[in-house]
Amino acid sequence: MSHGHKGVAPAHQFESVEQQQRVARFGMWMFLISETMIFGALFTGYAVYWTLYPEAFQEAAQFLDVTYGTVMTVVLLVSSTTVALAITALEGDRRRLAAGLFGVTIALGLVFFVLKIIEYAEKIGDGLLPTRGFEYPGAESADQAQVFFSWYFVITGTHAVHLIVGLAAIGFVIWPILRGTYHAKYFSPVEGTGLYWHLVDVIWIFVFPLLYLMGRAGGMG
Amino acid sequence: MDDTRETDPAEGDAGPNYLRAGYSIRSWLLTTDHKRIAILYLVSLTVMFLVGGAAAVLLRLELISSEASLVSGDGYNKLFTLHGVIMIFFFLVPSIPAVFGNFLIPMMVGARDMAFPRINLASWYLYMTGAILGIAIIVGGGVDTGWTFYTPYSSTYANTHVILAVAGVFIAGFSSIFTGLNIVATVYAMRAPGLGWGRLPLFVWSLLATSLIILLATPVLAITLALVAVERATGIGIFDPGLGGDPVLFQHLFWFYSHPAVYIMILPSLGVVSEIVACFARKRIYGYPFMAGASIAIAILGFFVWGHHMFVSGQSVYAGIVFSFLSFLVAVPSAVKVFNWIATLHRGQISFETPMLYAFGFIGLFVVGGLTGLFTATIAVNVHIHDTYFVVAHFHYIMVGGALMGYLGALHFWWPKIMGRLYPERLARWSAIFVFLGFNLTFFPQFLLGYQGMPRRYHVYPQEFELLNVFSSGGAIFLGLGYLLPAIYLTWSLKYGRAAGPNPWGATGLEWTTASPPPSENFARTPRVTEPVYNYTGERQS
Ligand SMILES: [Cu+2]
């Protein structure tokens, strides 16, 4: 029945480990495409409002701190690199190195998360939480600025939820890697986790310019 | 070993059938067998159908008289919301994919299980969580926004349990994403040797198209409903016109899911009907590649027509024209399907077993629903019939006359495979006829009512509409009877029905080559496909 690698049996529904890995990879890609649609909807809504209220959005976006955004972008990019390195290490069966690199990824993800919380706290302290107590110091319409900050919190918040899921997923594969459950011949759950982390990163690559940089671009609006 | 089914030669050395793989509650609640998960879904969907149906009965009872007789205005709002939310999100959307897709897709492609069995089970638990939230809302006083949750009413003004309701739909959404994911992955990578894309049954093609819609559209609904809940809870300004938010954006995002959702509901039935028509006409399906292609075309086109729900929302005239034109285009692949069924029937050796009656009923009602869809997609006509009973009748012809007839057809076609028992054929034929007549008596008058201008969603109405409403409510009684009978005789057949044998209809397809009910691993050994699809020879060969 099975002609997989020595010592590796596929799950009962599969003919071979190769098939199992192929299915896992394909399924993960499908799931990621599905997830992308969530952000597709959010970005579309945000773009609609930017065209409705260009002046107010332009101004409101300048209340976001590009320094935070830049640091967070760098942190995430590095974390994606460590994931890629971890998977390469696993392919070479260097399991301790792989686990270590995933540990670094988690640390970087937590750095991102803490920065996000600090940034949120600052915005809330400035009265920019877009709920009933919203206080806006800018010159343009405060209501429209509130709409901008609604999108800011919703988009970054949804991204943060994905980040937390990704961190948890990585946390769940580290121990099995060390224990030898996943190794050079079988690691599709690890690969899927890595792909998910890349999605978290790629989405941020869109979030960063759309929210933080659009306000600086003179040509926009 | 006193049961003949256990020594059936087709079963070979594959072990006992899946129903006998364990009898404890635990063996069901923790199962990862796609067939058992299908049964879990069948039972829970039936319960939800009864709840949604009960709401429909109350609505029709209220509408017998033009005055408020049974419920208050608020009560009526809650009833039609409940009916819509339960029937769409907790019955029709999951129905065929979660029950028959789950049971049949692995068997039709010759696999032992779905690609991701544990995700499959998780899907059912998510569904149950959503469904329990749905029931909790009923107990807790209901929700009155309509199944469409339009803003700003839902996000700001409604005083009912909107957050709980959208949470239930949100969770159920991820259950269908999990089911869709499994179907796509299973069909893509787990087909038996020799089973190329051109040999897949059309049911598989239609569920593939359905799953792609589920994967691409459901996340948009999920995030949109999440935005409504967050706005309602915290007062952020995404949809609130008071702040400059745009409530119409909600409609765009909502219908971006909910129009394709119509195809999530109807495409599986199109696949079912293809299986049944080929089997009971004893002929290869006419124009197989066009049938498969039409499913995919409907899925793709379905993403570009959502604006036909918004002709009176203030969207631009040009957008309206484009949406209207694209909506007409959907009629092309739909008509391809109907003509190919007719061509398949032509010179076929037609017999009228129960599944075939449902298939015929489906085709007739689907044609009426589809053609009236052209009326509603015409901007000028739409303005006249917008939010009237014409629209109600139109989408019930598609979603009940179409999707539900397909579901019942599938239930009768594959019941002998699923349970290994035959049901009383005469009684089943009568109930199919009851469903067809009752359905038309219920919903045809609503076309007339709508055309005369009766608006939907009111519990009182001018007296001139009373007669047609009495007809409609009377038809609902027949319809209800037609639904109740299968529940009774199918349950009866579990104990008293004759053993079905592996292939009672003499049908082609891998699922009919194994025992009924199938063994846990589906096949004694992995099948090897050597014949073309629908290789019917004209003679019945059971
Ligand atoms: Cu539509």
Describe the protein in words.
The complex is a heterodimer of chains A (221) and B (542). With 221 residues, chain A is mainly α. Chain A has one domain (36-213): Four Helix Bundle (Hemerythrin (Met), subunit A), CATH 1.20.120.80. Chain A is 75% helix and 0% strand. Chain A contains 6 helices and no strands. Chain A has helices spanning 17-52, 54-61, 66-91, 95-125, 142-179, 188-213. In chain A, helix 1 packs antiparallel against helix 5, helix 2 (54-61) packs across helix 5 (142-179) and helix 4 runs antiparallel to helix 5. The longest helix of chain A is centred in the last third of the chain and has 38 residues, at 142-179. Chain B is an all-alpha fold. Chain B has a single domain, classed as Cytochrome c oxidase-like, subunit I domain (Cytochrome C Oxidase, Chain A, Up-down Bundle). Chain B has 16 helices and no strands. In chain B, helix 5 (117-139) runs antiparallel to helix 7. Chain B starts with 24 loop residues before the first helix and ends in a 46-residue tail after the last helix. Residues 1-11 of chain B have low confidence and may be disordered. Classes of the chains: A mainly alpha (221), B mainly alpha (542). Chains A and B meet through helix 1 and helix 5 of A and helix 7, helix 8 and helix 9 of B. The structure holds copper (II) ion (CU). Copper (II) ion binds at residues 259, 262, 308-309 of chain B.
